[in-house]
Each structure stands twice: as structure tokens, then as C-alpha cells.
Write a structure and sequence with these properties.
About 65% of the residues lie in helices and about 15% in strands. The protein is of the alpha+beta class and about 170 residues long.
């Protein structure tokens, strides 16, 4: 091989080597770009998940705070109901009737407020359900079958479909 042919061959090899290096560099850049795109997509998905979790946590916190306020308010409703029931047992006079009518209006307003915020009394008051009721006493009753509720001692309430406070009841043996 002549010197000229060797130079051409060396130049060709140098060009091939440079071309190979460019191809390798291009492949490395394309792989790095693909990796960065994947990291970006994962980061966006992680951030979306974080936002969703934060929103859910905020909603749970708000629901928990509302529940706590309503549980405290229910103690007032219970006292109001007991006072109303006690006064209805007493001898009624025209003056007492006017007072009781006002008292009943206040009671309706309280229950209307609870209803506005989706706080509702527990409905099933016939058969004991441990998910809705808390049995405080078992009593003998000829009028009720075993497992039936004899008396509701304290009303139970739900808040947005979730049990806020179980009804306290007495159950037939």
C-alpha cells in the first residue's frame, strides 16, 4: 500500500471514528433526554398525587372540625329536648301554652339548623343495630321481642351519612 493510500485509509478511519463518536454521543443524548422526560412525567404525577392527597386531607380536617362542633351542639339539643319533655308533663295553663309554643319554635329552629348542615337523627328506632345504637340497659318487656329497642335514652345522629353519635337505647332481653 502506498503512502497516499495509507493516508486516505487513515483519513477514512478517522472519519468513521468521528462518525461513530457522533452517533454514540447522539445516542447518549437521546437516552439522557428519554430519562429526563420520564423523570419529568413522574414528577408531574407525584405533584398531582400530592395535590390530591392534600385536598383530601384538608377536606377530612374540615369534616372533623365540623363534627366536633356538632357533637358539642348535640349536648345542647339534648338538654333542650329534655326540658321540653319535662314541661309537657306539667299542668298546662294558657300562659304555659304560649311559653311552650315559643319553646317549640326554638326547638324547630335548632333541628332546622342541624338539617341545614346535614346532621340528621338516626332513623331506625325499632331493632337494635350495633352500628347505630349503643345498648346501655337490657330490660324485660312483654311488648317487645328480644333485640328490639324498648326506649331511646339519647338520640343518635349522623353527619353527611356518617355516624356522629350513636343512639343510647334500652333493649329487650
Amino acid at each position: 500500500m502506498t503512502k497516499k493510500e495509507q493516508n486516505i485509509s487513515a483519513e477514512q478511519e478517522a472519519k468513521n471514528l468521528a462518525k461513530k463518536e457522533k452517533n454514540d454521543s447522539l445516542k447518549a443524548c437521546e437516552q439522557e433526554l428519554a430519562d429526563l422526560k420520564e423523570k419529568y412525567v413522574r414528577s408531574v404525577a407525584d405533584f398531582d398525587n400530592y395535590k390530591r392527597r392534600s385536598e383530601q386531607e384538608r377536606a377530612r380536617w374540615a369534616l372533623s372540625a365540623q363534627s366536633a362542633v356538632f357533637v358539642d351542639l348535640l349536648a345542647i339539643v339534648d338538654n333542650f329536648d329534655r326540658a321540653q319533655a319535662e314541661h309537657e308533663k306539667k299542668e298546662r295553663t294558657p300562659k304555659m301554652d304560649v311559653w311552650l309554643q315559643g319553646f317549640e319554635l326554638i326547638g324547630k329552629s335548632l333541628y332546622k339548623l342541624l338539617d341545614k348542615y346535614n346532621v340528621k337523627p338516626v332513623k331506625d328506632n325499632k331493632t337494635f343495630n350495633p352500628e347505630l345504637h349503643e345498648a346501655l340497659v337490657q330490660v324485660d318487656s312483654q311488648d317487645h321481642e328480644s333485640g328490639q329497642i324498648v326506649d331511646v335514652l339519647q338520640k343518635g345522629f349522623t353527619f353527611k351519612g356518617e355516624l356522629l353519635r350513636p343512639a343510647k337505647v334500652s333493649v329487650a332481653k
